[in-house]
Amino acid sequence: MARSNEAAAEALNEYAELFALDGGDPFRVRSYQKAAKAIAGHPRDLREISVRDVPGIGEAIAKKVEEFLARGGFRQLDALRAKVPDGVRRLTRIPSLGPKTALFLYRELGIDSAEALADAIAAGRLKGVKGMGPKTVDNLLAGIEQLRSSGGRVHRGIAFDLAQQVIAVLGGQASPPERIAYAGSLRRMRETVGDIDILAVGSPGLMEALRAQPFVTEVVAAGDKKTSVRTDRGLQIDLRLVPAESWGAALVYFTGGKDHNVRLREIAVRKGWKLSEYGLFEGERVIAAATEEDIYAALGMQWVPPPLREDMGEVEAALKHELPELVQRADLKGDLHTHTNLTDGVASLEEMVAAAADLGHSYYAVTDHAPDLAMQRMTLDKALEQRAALEALQAKYPRMRLLHGTELNIGPDGSVDWPLEVLEGFDVRVASVHSHFTQPREEMTRRFIAACENPGVHIIGHPTTRKIGKRPPVDADWDAVFDAAARTGTVLEIDSFPDRADLPSDLVRRAKHRGVRFSIDSDAHAVPHLGNQHYGVGIAQRAALTPDDVINAWPLDRLLAHLAAPT
DNA sequence: GCCGTTTTCGGCCCGACTGTTTTCAGTCG
């Protein structure tokens, strides 16, 4: 059974949004958001604890959450859903368009969607409207485009959770599947997913069970071998029943990618064979079908890990038996970018360190924000206090080396928070962009290069600063940045947060070719986030990284030597 | 709505940026 925390947090966030749109007190809005964050970040399942004991939750929210746990909703949420028009909510999904403007556009001009807004702008209906100058209209158009370009795809975290949920539900049926697995872009570890493909060997009752799930809003297709449903998040799920003897062939076929599959079929054809989702055949004779390994072996290839199946050179490498040894989750020995409640995390230093030890890390860096990000209210004194606390904590963890780090803010000119002599007191220095996202390409490139050239900076955090579905990547000459990183020994981060997924795998691949090394970090702001590193590993695998490319796959001694070397 | 070495009321991370405003409103992190 999935944790109830995420669903409850989502309901509270929705309530906060509706409450704000309804003109509610901003401080109460913050309370709901804070409670949602605390719930989502709580290590224990809500059903196992007293909700009232979670910090940030008082009597009023506890009652709402308890009602939510009992029946999947609460009275006040139902009331606000009925009161706030969907059109207003849809408008606020447009970046740069907040609640005030949404309400105004809806009430005064009857605009209730991104499409309607685009039409109104095209028709010149916003001309002369108070507060709607040309720049504002341009920004709205850019926001609409940003919303459209996400094209119904969601980040991998959402798709992964949903796929796990479907597999768990079907596995719990009276006649469970003999085999079940997800395929498609989800199995290839793509950073965004357009639909979820699930393969199963089992009875047609599985398809009925899927259609009956509460998150299914529409049945798109329902046949003997395939059921397609749409879910409340707009994501489509395809469930396909395949014959047990064709399992491997079906997995290959439905995992794709398309170009990879085309290459495989061409190789089969050249041997006088045929490859389909039912197997590899010579005429009627089955050559291979039951496992993926059998099929690749019959084609004279190594089994290709799904993240590489994009026809980006892996077919040739597999034919020559020269596929790289991809970095695995188990190779990671530590985490070099994490937060505590000293800045914007929700868990204490002690809680985060204890959870990291449970994961079996052999080193762990705490990298709270630095003073330039004013909202975090950090000071050098606070950082030094934290360092002392961390040093005291070290005695409790003989098998895990605690590293004191910081996440610096890269200013518009490429400078960071502290001078070198202060930076040298930190074991790990991550530096990231948190503002001025729209700088012109040349300035942004200079900014990153300056950060790389700063001898006090070890790692550039979440380099493109994108948030999938919310914020586009910044514009920079990435090859120039990668060259600077390679030249200075500056490591680029693969931020594992599924909505960041940053660097993206295509840029990781390019950076690797230019000699850059990487760090796969959780950027955890709560205990459960520490487990997100598997998402970053997926990105690394898509870019064909090996353990040698990833500094936190290195043993402690090698890592420390690298961090100590002047860059 | 939450919280308490400012403790049961009165604060709440708050500053920067943008565009439009001639003194500020909205949005964001």
List the helices and strands and how they pair.
Elements: H1 5-21, H2 26-40, H3 59-71, H4 75-83, H5 86-92, H6 99-109, H7 114-122, H8 134-149, E1 154-155, H9 156-171, E2 179-182, H10 184-187, E3 192-193, E4 195-201, H11 205-211, E5 216-222, E6 226-231, E7 236-241, H12 247-255, H13 258-270, E8 274-276, E9 279-282, E10 285-288, H14 292-298, H15 314-319, E11 334-335, H16 349-358, E12 363-369, H17 380-394, E13 401-409, H18 420-423, E14 428-432, H19 441-453, E15 459-460, H20 478-488, E16 491-495, H21 505-513, E17 518-521, H22 533-542, H23 556-564
Parallel strand pairs: 4-7, 11-12, 12-13, 13-14, 14-15, 15-16, 16-17
Antiparallel strand pairs: 1-3, 2-4, 5-6, 6-7, 8-9, 9-10
Helix pairs in contact: 1-2, 1-4, 5-6, 7-8, 12-14, 19-20, 20-21, 21-22
The protein binds one DNA strand of 29 nucleotides through helix 2, helix 3, helix 6 and helix 8.
Domain Polymerase/histidinol phosphatase N-terminal: 334-412
GO cellular component, one term: cytosol
Subcellular location: Cytoplasm
